Give the backbone structure.
Amino acid sequence: MEADRGRDYRQVAFLDASGAVSVYTGSSCIASASHAIGENYSVQANMMLNDDVVPAMSRAFVDHQELPLAERVVTVLHAAQAAGGDIRGKQSAALIVVGPEVVDEVWKDRKIDLRVDDHQDPLAELDRLLRVHRAYEHMNRGDLAVENQDMEGALREYGAAEKMFPRNLEMKYWKAVALANNGRMEEALPVFEYVFDRDSNWRELTGRLPASGLLTVTNAELQTILKL
């Protein structure tokens, strides 16, 4: 900061891998502007409606240690908004979570990378995007289970994703595939029918799956599915 002539207008925080925190709020930052630090965290804000926002953020981070980091940070953002938030109102929100180790492939570093650029309720939208991200984590684990011939595991993961977003056709569809692959055709058929009725492209996709080894039913069972 000593080398920055505009330091009076800056607000910046650093948190290193060992948990050490360094934070700076310039004297000319627009009020309400302040920061708070604690073990393994820093919260800071400027142009807030009041002086309650930063303490509310700090409390929320400390009081929700049981949450995964991403959900914990979003909880902090909600606490900030509930305490008054930005004096200019609501417009955008973002969330980035990186891994604990340095990686060669930089695209593998960001575990979560979500942003809402312009929205009437950006935190609600950020919540939704985070839930979508978590649901697709289940979907991805289901895909890996299929690759490893662990159909019970696939069914469990696809079911967890579907439970989070029951109207999502893709999540229902792959659950149906897992059911069929586990010999549970009576349970799978109504789910296939539900999906096909709403988008016939899924029926076309189904006919292509056996060649990739992703649908392991008999030809007769395949024809039963395709005729739905």
Observations:
- Strands lie at 11-15, 21-25, 34-38, 41-45, 93-98, 110-116.
